[in-house]
Amino acid sequence: MADVFDDLTAEYHRLDTVLVSLTPDQWAHASGAEGWTVADVVLHLAQTNEVIAEPSIAEGTPFLSSVGNTVDGVVEDMVTAERGMPPDELLARWRKTAFATVDVLRAQPPGMRLSWVRTPLSPRTLATTRIAEHWAHAQDIVVPLGIPYPDTARIRHIAWLAHRTLPYAFSVEGLPDAPVFCDLTAPDETHWTFGDPAAPSRITGPASEFCRVGARRLSPEQTSLTAEGPRAADALRVLRNYAA
């Protein structure tokens, strides 16, 4: 795959072209994230990017190690606490935090594990999660506003992450791990494969739909994805584009 840090920068630039074009009414428009406006979504992205710039990122300590904490609850509280920033200030804040994350992640020494949600991550994996999160939240912005945002080859990082975290996704649902092979059609009609081709369970179909299922923007039933074998349907049901 292309360098993940370069692709993260490209994904930021792409979203930036959308955000800079928004009118005040569009910033205040309901997003695809339930209960959030477009401005709320951008605030959330800025806040989570700012976490990466904190010196404590190098401690490798999960943020949500306490019993009872949930990711959704924490991020909702963060957005509620700062909701209401003017769009121009919010855009400037997101730009500053977004592009700074690339430098922070590139600068980490080999073998470093960085603090993130429930599991410490390598800089490259954390960069991949930022691509996945910005891509998913870009959908929350552009789809309600009717702004074109075609998928690019960068979603390969997202598909890789979704497949890579399947063991964790199975465990969260109390299911035993199982090998799953994925043969996905890329936006340019080439094929991306993940896992062992000899695995008894197989998922095939468009990578764009696979990534949207992992982002919980589509249900498996709303797609043309095919699940074959004993655990493929379970894999689609628990699929997630993030490392928590």
UniProtKB/TrEMBL annotation:
NCBIfam families in the cross-refs = maleylpyruvate isomerase family mycothiol-dependent enzyme (TIGR03083)
Mycothiol-dependent maleylpyruvate isomerase metal-binding domain location is 9-141
Has the keyword Isomerase been applied to this entry? yes
Organism expressing this protein natively: Actinomadura monticuli
Gene Ontology molecular functions: isomerase activity
For this UniProt record, give its keywords in alphabetical order, as a comma-separated list. Answer: Isomerase
* TM region(s), chain numbering: none
What name is this protein filed under? Maleylpyruvate isomerase family mycothiol-dependent enzyme
Do you know which InterPro entries this protein is assigned to? DinB/YfiT-like, Maleyloyr_isom, MDMPI_metal-binding
Query: Cell division among the record's keywords?
Result: no
> Its domain of life?
Bacteria
